[in-house]
Amino acid sequence: MALRIQKFLSQCGYCSRRKAETLILESRVTVNAQAAAIGQIIDAARDIVKVDAVRIHYTPPKQPIVFMLNKPRGVICTHLAKYPEKTVFDFIPDAFAKERFLYCGRLDRDSQGMLILTNDGDFAHKLTHPSSNITKIYHVTLSRPIAPEQKTQLLRGIEDQGEVLRAEKVLELPTKNSRQTLEIHLKQGRKREIRRMIDACGCHVHRLKRVQIGQLRLKNLGVGHVKYLSQDDISRLFAL
Question: Which of 158, 167, 207, 216 is most open to solvent, judged by the fewest CB atoms within 10 Å of its CB?
């Protein structure tokens, strides 16, 4: 079976196609003992593909399993065994322990809320790729209030580390204390995007929670709990 190398790795459940591109650029992927190239066509049944010198065996496409996790703070998104902390994959139900899952849109250690986990690399790629145009909504509590003109700047865009970071929408939410809480809508999903935007305003994020992806909202799901997503739930993830 002829497949592009990125799709091969995603169908095997090893990583998303975007992550596969990164691994290839880092020269960590080989095909028949030769460095792989992005877009390279391989024979999934015959070619020997390795990542970090470990062979990846082809597995035929299977029915995607998709969970929603209400991620607690202090839990990390990683497959690496070197971290002693709890990871998001520790919350996968025991019945699926043999499956390799991916996270769709990383939340850092100090962030919480809605995280999608799946055993299907193509699904993860579709959900996270900018071309899907999916909005993610966050509730962000700040260390101190920011000025109205700074909220406008979040919408216009802030340049940071050679990237333009921009919110689609910024709303102020009512709170029971003195801390300002904003609802921020994003489509780009760059690394630590909200924290970098708020830092650029001379402020810091006190608490960050993702509450919605597409039209699927995090509700009635306790912290640290997972929910198996039905086809109806999945269709709402991709609804614009």
Answer: 207
